[in-house]
Automatic annotation (TrEMBL), chains A, B:
Gene Ontology terms, MF aspect: oxidoreductase activity
Source species: Streptomyces cinereospinus
E.C. numbers: 1.-.-.-
Name used for this protein in its record: Pyridoxamine 5'-phosphate oxidase family protein
Region described as Disordered: spans on this chain: 1-28
Annotated keywords: Oxidoreductase
Family matches, as Gene3D superfamilies: Electron Transport, Fmn-binding Protein, Chain A
Domain of life: Bacteria
Length: 227, 227
């Protein structure tokens, strides 16, 4: 569609790089922004990797996405956040989010697998020092856990905000990887007497348990009954 | 109990090191072997961190525990497994397993949290080359996903085993970290009109979906009906 506006639309995919192209099963990799965003938005915890004294460190932590930026927060005393504040031009990190969707039981041990969706982000983490961006990130971190929740809680006061460090990681060098579908067995194994199939894992919430001493008349909010 | 056999029993805890003692919330850290084993045994996927060209890489992968050893497997072509084969005296890794148990919604944004249990293992990964240890690890990897399953599947043949690399990481420099319990709010916030409480996340299996073409008379095995 030469000359139409579509040709100047922002790219719908991240550009693959040497380290985001897998050495194995390239058909399970994707650079599609919509897919990457959906996987990121569904997770609660990411695994943040960084290098300390030459050795890798991988820590679980909450995160949130705002457009093409990820935010991670923590105490100003936590190691990766302290290290980010000192690193120029930023702290090299790898941030990974993984969902395990189902167990795949094949007739052969070798073809056992899981259905999963993961996103791996490489880049430099930067300290967020702008007060407006920091507030945006703190709201996003609460809304990431329960969409809409930040409007139904007391916002952080100055002391709480000062005790919290926020770092930013741009979505630039990014890939998704996934497995979907059913069992793949060798043709000669199909007649074996072993059960084979897909075992989906449970998702979502159990019934919320209210804190004791809620203010009189406080009902379970709609954002907790919708999934 | 001086002089009794108990005093020479193996230690029930890992020895803390500089990098397994958190800078924050030390009361949420534990070195108890039983707790560490339970967290590891409940997970499906770990996040394996290593350093490549000076930058961190964090990849999700299946794993299994046998006593005080963890095993990770993959294609012989996968990057961390290839790197382990070449690394002397082993590849520095950090292997982390995390369970998210519940969302904690406090009346204040600042006190929002999650209940979680995680284990972080630091150490050197080694290639498993002994055929018996490799077979033990491959069985454990299948049994880790579904206990008892390795006896109900065709074992790997020579070609499949040759295509699979296994690495070992000893449980030595290990810590667990966790949050349990309910909402912690500031006393002055308790009268605020916001709903607060614990939202447990669903765990376990949905109904297993059998593969098409199971051998006649193949029933759902007991190890899939028990949880």
């Amino acid at each position: 569609m030469q000359g139409t506006r579509e040709t100047t639309a922002p790219p719908a995919a991240y550009t693959p790089t040497e380290r985001t192209v897998p050495t194995r099963s390239p058909e399970r990799a994707s650079y599609d922004k919509e897919l990457v965003h959906a996987i990121l938005d569904e997770g609660y915890v990411c695994h943040l990797g960084f290098v300390r004294d030459g050795a890798p460190v991988v820590l679980p932590t909450l995160y949130a996405r705002v457009g093409e930026r990820l935010y991670v927060h923590g105490s100003t005393g936590s190691r990766p956040l302290r290290m980010t504040g000192k690193a120029e031009p930023g702290l090299p990190v790898c941030l990974t989010v993984t969902h395990v969707d189902a167990l795949i039981l094949a007739r052969s041990a070798f073809h056992h697998s899981i259905n999963y969706r993961s996103v791996v982000v490489h880049g430099l983490a930067h300290d967020v020092t702008d007060p407006d961006e920091k507030q945006l990130a703190l709201d996003a971190l609460v809304d990431h856990v329960v969409p809409g929740r930040s409007r139904d809680a007391r916002p952080a006061n100055k002391k709480e905000s000062a005790a919290t460090a926020v770092i930013r990681l741009d979505l630039d060098e990014v890939s998704a990887k996934f497995r979907t579908g059913g069992v793949i067995d060798e043709p000669e194994d199909l007649a074996l007497p072993h059960w084979a199939g897909v075992v989906p894992l449970r998702k979502g919430y159990e019934t919320p348990v209210p804190d004791s001493g809620l203010a009189p008349g406080t009902e379970l909010p709609g954002y907790l009954t919708q999934r």
